[in-house]
Specification:
Elements: E1 5-10, H1 28-39, E2 43-48, H2 57-66, E3 70-74, H3 80-93, E4 98-102, H4 104-108, H5 110-116, E5 122-124, H6 129-141, E6 153-157, E7 160-163, E8 187-188, E9 191-192, H7 203-207, E10 212-213, H8 216-227, E11 233-236, H9 245-257, E12 263-268, H10 275-283, E13 286-294, H11 298-303, H12 310-322, E14 326-333, H13 340-353, E15 357-362, E16 364-365, H14 370-379, E17 393-394, H15 404-427, H16 438-453, H17 466-480, H18 484-496, H19 500-513, H20 518-530, H21 534-541, H22 548-562
Parallel strand pairs: 1-2, 1-3, 3-4, 4-5, 8-11, 11-12, 12-13, 13-14, 14-15
Antiparallel strand pairs: 5-6, 6-7, 9-10, 16-17
Helix pairs in contact: 1-6, 2-3, 8-9, 9-10, 13-15, 16-17, 16-18, 17-18, 18-19, 18-20, 19-20, 20-21, 20-22, 21-22
Bound molecules: iron/sulfur cluster.
Length: 563
């Protein structure tokens, strides 16, 4: 008998984002489910349909071609309408296809989904690998009588909604197959669970308060498998990656021993950081750690149950920067009891911790959080609120002391202050004086320099002195160690300022050290063109004959020489 065809779909969100990266990655859990099914010899495919609504005819085309027997949807609050719409199309095309919803939103709203949306047959609640596998097996065998014995699912039966016993959390995460055996992706996780109870976050209720880890060996093997497929940049998506210092240091040492030349970013809490761990993380390729701070007001942090102290935040940010790792701060505004005074406290804290990147969110309420239970109590609200086409509930809409206008102004003020002080934040970085980190310091300075000269910050008018900040960073980079990016950045700055002689000098030094660098040769060639020295320009551009961009400039040189 041919095995069932299973599609795992990650659907599009209700609203488009300015940064596609925010919605693009398929959650890592989907890959684990896919891998478990593959190990059990099912024909399974993962479809990242985060933007299929831009070409909606493709939905039915692909479904027609793939002919799935079962479709599993990975559903967050933001993409639940996308999932419902695709499921509806799939059911209309084939009423026998079985539709399964899993993920954070269905876990907390399972009854809501089953009650209002007949296109859904089953919901997987919580950690989904084994529940989904058992469900697929039962469907395959046509054994619907035993479905009630599968732990961790919900379904309809004779007009009623049945939820089975909760599935036990997987004790040994290493028993799961490493999904990189079958798939390619950049988001990886070392642990599941979070012991904290922030009022706005559903993660602990989904994964549990007890934290479970893969072994460092398994995690590095995971990275290695992806590295061998050509992936060199990773997002470590654990809620608190550094919660266990010894394990993290072991991971870093193993990455170094295996010679994996990778770059990665992680998330943690300011209370789980010290010099040792930062030293090893930096050596093993970490370039950024994100920390949730949420507010400068202790009162609001307490209301959100954040449990972060101002001193811890200051210390963690300064230390992280000392080791050449960008400390990125998450802040929330529009929280309970937010006023201009508390916003000023947030601005004051930002000035003290000096983050190089800040991510600002308006507080939203999601199922599975304490804020959501409070909201339901305050308004006697049911889950029917999610019948509205919204992604989340803005907290300010539920609090008469806050208006949308005021909250938007809060955000604007924080952003302006942040950008106006960014130059001081960069100036305050004091990299640790350890010779073995010089090459990495050089890399850090040049990356940061590019952010100001040609990256995200180059487009933000409110950031003062961008060129000079970048120039200093590139020079600092080269004072530590020769760095291709720094030579290029400095060369481009000088070129923009029409300081062509200076650009030639710095770019020539760069080309001497990095003769194969396409960017340096191209930039140097263009600089000579600006000096009308077309023959010398050609000597660099012709090294890149295969590049389309270089071809354009080569032709320009020949044209100039022929007149
Ligand atoms: S915000 Fe982070 S620390 Fe707080 S509960 Fe969620 S995952 Fe845990």
């Amino acid at each position: 008998m041919a095995r069932m065809k299973i599609l795992l779909i990650y659907p599009y969100s209700l609203y488009d984002r300015s940064l596609e990266e925010d919605i693009k990655p398929v959650p890592i859990g989907v890959y684990y489910i896919g891998a478990v099914l593959k190990e059990n010899h099912y024909d399974v495919e993962i479809l990242n349909w985060y933007k299929i609504h831009k070409t909606p005819q493709k939905i039915s085309e692909v479904l027609l071609e793939k002919k799935p027997d079962i479709i599993g949807f990975s559903i967050l609050n933001a993409n639940r309408w996308g999932g419902l719409e695709i499921a509806q199309i799939a059911k209309e095309m084939n009423p026998d296809v079985k539709i399964v919803f899993g993920g954070v939103a269905p876990t907390f709203l399972w009854k809501h989904f089953l009650k209002h949306f007949p296109q859904i047959d089953f919901v997987v609640i919580g950690e989904g690998e084994y529940a989904f596998l058992h469900l697929v097996k039962s469907i395959e065998q046509g054994n619907y009588r035993d479905i009630k014995n599968i732990k961790g699912i919900a379904f309809r039966k004779k007009g009623k909604f049945v939820r089975t016993k909760p599935a036990e959390a997987i004790k040994d995460l290493d028993e799961l197959p490493i999904p990189a055996k079958y798939f390619e992706y950049q988001h990886v996780a070392f642990s599941r669970g979070c012991p904290w109870k922030c009022a706005f976050c559903g993660s602990p209720k989904f994964w549990g308060h007890k934290i479970r880890f893969h072994s460092p060996e398994n995690f590095v093997r995971h990275l290695e498998l992806l590295y061998n497929k050509g992936i060199t940049f990773f997002y470590v998506s654990d809620d608190n990656f550094t919660i266990n210092k010894d394990k993290v240091i072991e991971i870093c040492k193993r990455i170094l021993e295996k010679g994996l030349r990778i770059v990665w970013v992680a998330i943690s809490r300011v209370s789980y950081i010290d010099e040792d761990i930062l030293y090893w993380m930096r050596k093993a390729g970490c370039t950024q750690i994100s920390y949730g701070i949420e507010s400068g007001s202790e009162k609001i942090r307490d209301l959100l149950n954040k449990n972060v102290k101002t001193d811890q935040a200051k210390n963690a940010f300064a230390l992280t920067h000392r080791y050449g790792i960008i400390a990125r701060a998450y802040f929330i505004y529009g929280s309970p009891e937010e006023t201009w005074e508390t916003i000023q406290e947030t601005i004051d804290l930002i000035r003290q911790i000096k983050p190089l990147i800040c991510v600002l969110y308006i507080l939203e309420i999601y199922p599975g959080t304490r804020l959501y239970s409070d909201f339901q109590k305050r308004f006697n609200a049911t889950d029917d609120i999610w019948l509205k086409r919204i992604e989340g509930i803005c907290y300010f809409e539920t609090d008469q002391n806050l208006s949308q206008e005021a909250v938007f102004q809060f955000g604007g003020k924080i952003r302006t202050e942040l950008y106006e002080n960014m130059n001081h934040f960069v100036e305050s970085i004091n990299l640790v004086n350890k010779k073995e980190l010089y090459e990495l310091h050089s890399d850090f300075c040049s990356r940061l320099g590019m952010t100001f000269s040609h990256g995200d910050y180059s487009k933000i008018d409110a950031i003062k002195d961008k060129d000079n900040i970048a120039e200093k960073l590139f020079e600092q980079s080269l004072s530590y160690y020769p760095n291709q990016r720094a030579y290029l950045g400095l060369g481009m700055i000088k070129q923009d300022r029409m300081e062509f002689e200076g650009a030639v000098k710095i770019l020539s030094e760069g080309v001497e050290l990095f003769p194969d660098s396409k960017e340096l040769n191209l930039c140097l060639g263009i600089t000579y063109m600006n000096l009308r020295d077309y023959n010398t320009a050609l000597s660099y551009l012709l090294r890149l004959e295969r590049s389309k961009e270089a071809k354009y400039y080569i032709e320009k040189c020949y044209q100039a020489l022929s007149v």
